[in-house]
């Protein structure tokens, strides 16, 4: 029985066998036919040099150490990039594709090409470019969803716009520790962000310390080149985030707010940073108590140099205190950090305006060096009919008065003119002062607005009405001089040959009106050089329009011993650039004083 | 066995011998055709995986650890993922769970096809390896489509799988399954019912129940010895408890024949499982975000995870000190007991012509003993 069945089954039936005769062989094909690889086949590396930023994360993840970053001298890297490009070694590579999955830009992929036939061993070690690309949608490509990286940041919790616009309390609620650590883990440590930071803060280091919940360590890293970390952690323009590798395809790490979070966790900086006991027997005068001077004075004191700041106002902080509204930067944060700077031995003489209460030349005589950090404090006006008189403010003055606690009366229907961050601050301050309707008029398009996206969004969330491509032409007043209307026209964006960006051209034939009772002009600030005697205006070198002082790498002006920094030097005009300038000037001054010794 | 005498023959088979299932060798002493003594000889493949693992971030170990086993690399990937997921208490998305089952069972099918070819080849039925290796390619094609790789898939990751299934993948899997089911009939005719096969394999290389238990034999080798133990049933991992399949319990003689037939029946069961998985697979995400591969940490602790591989029980003992690198990873491969210990016991006294077949029938994969 058993045997019979076996014999039966011994051979395939004739027809069974016949079917194999005509079947196309699946594995080996003669004559040779190239196998069509699957769509997501992991073949030869391809790298788009345009997109690649040379961050080296591909090399870092490679378990086979098959990737080496090599310098391409012919490449000029943009901000947040290097001229390194990955080189792969096919003697090592295992074609796992993890390099692709970690690549933040998505420049790297494995194409469906799989043949490298060569007798030259060097052909198997090469710097991938687009040469062997099998085309989009083929091969092992990087995409946001399947990336090993999380391109979504932890959003900073904010107060409800409807509530927050009623008062000047802080808009942000701050991270919880859990949120901060969860966000901090995203930092890959590639440090390209540092390129974006004017003062080159130790970003990966302080974020890593946050990840390890070691906030004191974190603050220690920060103070190396920034004595106002919590302030910056609240209102900085975060150029670092623009240089963050995640920014290429998604949301940058919340570098700014992480810094603020960690600095906020350390109540007593003295415990971490200490007070310098050095003595240098030199003294430096600094004009203006803005971030530039504060930073300069701090680092001078760290080296034992006496630093005396002359400040026209009764308060310290410059525009941090006088410009930035309190709902964005609470006093508690500002005074905590300024107090610590004072504790280092920095002296601030309040209410002394250089040029009025003491002359510039007196300072030069009394001190070994002088630092000028007077900022941009004169608001501009448009000069249209009706702009003189009651009900028209310039933003700088209005914000200063509000911040100094003066009573400021505005109406119910407010027009703010401008498109920068100062304009955003003016709109939102107007709301908090009781305006019922706030219109923002900007002559270019929404995308052209220099204000940061987040400021724009926040203003919109609070109910500010954006009227872009409009241009006020006349402020209409009634017989009592009170503003009733603002006449305006629309503009058209015209691209002129050779121009960098399109120009707004007013369409004058169609004049329209808004019902308005208050106008705030936020169309820019100017420096005030009146403290400089005329001969000094000639000695010190300015740019063509006298907007900025020209300095060397040590922040020294053309006049020996006179240094400058902050808004009056730096067209970037933000706090962190002022801080960077201040620190650089401090190092420059120390160098200068040593040479003179 | 008897004492080895001067004039007895001494043979070396392997490491490069068609009758050995990988880079491993056996040293054989024989009296005429009868084997007196057999000594496995390891070391040709030792790459120090367990140590290398300790020097790599968790995620970087996926492309490394799977290289322990060529015919069925996926088990290594899945085990590493399972260990991390257990220690970090990760909920793996449903869809990924089903995809994992499909991957594991497809891998089992591919490994069994290898096995059939191996045993048949060792007997001299050379058509069978041609067929099975060719048919295995259809499965590799599926893997290539799904994972981008044919042999080493590097498809698992912490919290799921790296990519979702491509368009129309499920239908193509079903087509291959249909084909394989049809092919099983051909295999039956030309192999499993072939008189040569029956004659050569019945009563040869017997591992009885007691021996099997004594030598920690697992997997189909154990089941063929009459112990119906399958990790998928007895201690279901992943989502195996959601599937309806049988652990065949017909062949229990513990000989080469039973071991091959056991796998033949299990082959059909795996097809059943895959069909159910495709049928039940929900939509949704296939992985979770680990956020930063270089900072990914695993909570301090240790775990032993195991699964039923085509060769037997395969386990990882993983220790984490809470850091970004594993503190220790130990691999428990089935081939250690099968290929090193058991072979010594059962091969002695057998005919030298049968030794390759016996080795193949145990499905020894030397690298999982040499980590
Ligand atoms: C409304 C507003 C919002 C802003 N928001 C941001 C922001 O969100 N983030 C950001 O990074 N930057 C912001 N900035 C810019 C930032 O505040 C400035 O770039 C920065 O403060 C410049 O620092 P500084 O030290 O150069 O000058 P300032 O901060 O302007 O400080 C100059 C100081 O010098 C004093 N001073 C001037 N003349 C004399 C004199 N003759 N004698 C004595 N003292 C004098 C002034 O009273 C002032 O205190 C904002 C600016 C404004 C106006
Ligand atoms: S990870 Fe991507 S962007 Fe960074 S260096 Fe490598 S290829 Fe370039
Ligand atoms: S594919 Fe894998 S092994 Fe090859 S270079 Fe990329 S990360 Fe390294």
Radius of gyration of chain B: 21 Å
Bound ions, cofactors and other small molecules, one mention each:
flavin-adenine dinucleotide, iron/sulfur cluster
Q: Largest protein interface?
A: A-B, 43 and 42 residues
Helix content of chain A: 25-40%
Could you describe the largest sheet of chain B, including whether it forms a barrel? 3 strands, antiparallel
Rough outline of chain A: globular
- Briefly note the CATH topology name of the domain at 380-523 in chain A: FAD/NAD(P)-binding domain
Report the structural category of chain A.
alpha/beta
- Which CATH C-level class of the domain at 380-523 in chain A is it? Alpha Beta
Unreliable spans of chain B: none
SS element count, helices of chain B = 13
Quaternary structure annotation = heterodimer
| Secondary-structure element order of chain B, N to C | EEEHHHHHEEHHHHHHEEEHH
Give short descriptive properties of this protein.
heterodimer; A: 597 residues; alpha/beta; FAD/NAD(P)-binding domain; five-stranded parallel beta sheet; 22 helices; 21 strands; 31% helix; 16% strand; B: 371 residues; alpha+beta; Cytochrome-c3 Hydrogenase, chain B; 45% helix; globular; binds flavin-adenine dinucleotide; binds iron/sulfur cluster
Overview of the structural elements:
- The complex is a heterodimer of chains A (597) and B (371).
- Chain A is of the alpha/beta class and 597 residues long.
- Chain A is 31% helix and 16% strand.
- Chain A is built from 22 helices and 21 strands.
- In chain A, strand 6 (283-287), helix 14 and strand 7 form a beta-alpha-beta unit.
- Chain A starts with a helix and ends with a helix.
- Mean pLDDT of chain A is 93; it is low at 1-9.
- Chain B has 371 residues and is α+β, with helices and mostly antiparallel strands.
- Chain B contains 13 helices and eight strands.
- In chain B, the strands form three sheets. Chain B has a three-stranded antiparallel sheet.
- In chain B, a hairpin with a 7-residue loop joins strand 7 (312-320) and strand 8.
- In chain B, helix 4 packs antiparallel against helix 13 (355-362) and helix 6 (169-192) packs antiparallel against helix 11.
- The longest helix of chain B has 30 residues, at 94-123.
- The model of chain B has no long low-confidence stretch (mean pLDDT 92).
- The A-B interface holds A 3, 5-7, 9-12, 16, 25-27, 37-42, 60-64, 94-98, 101-102, 110, 140, 146, 148-150, 182, 185-189, 211 and B 56-57, 59-64, 67, 133-134, 137-138, 141, 144-145, 147-149, 152, 154, 157, 162-164, 166, 186, 188-190, 193-195, 198, 287, 289-295.
- The structure holds flavin-adenine dinucleotide and iron/sulfur cluster (2 copies).
- The site of one iron/sulfur cluster (SF4) has 13 residues of chain A, from helix 4.
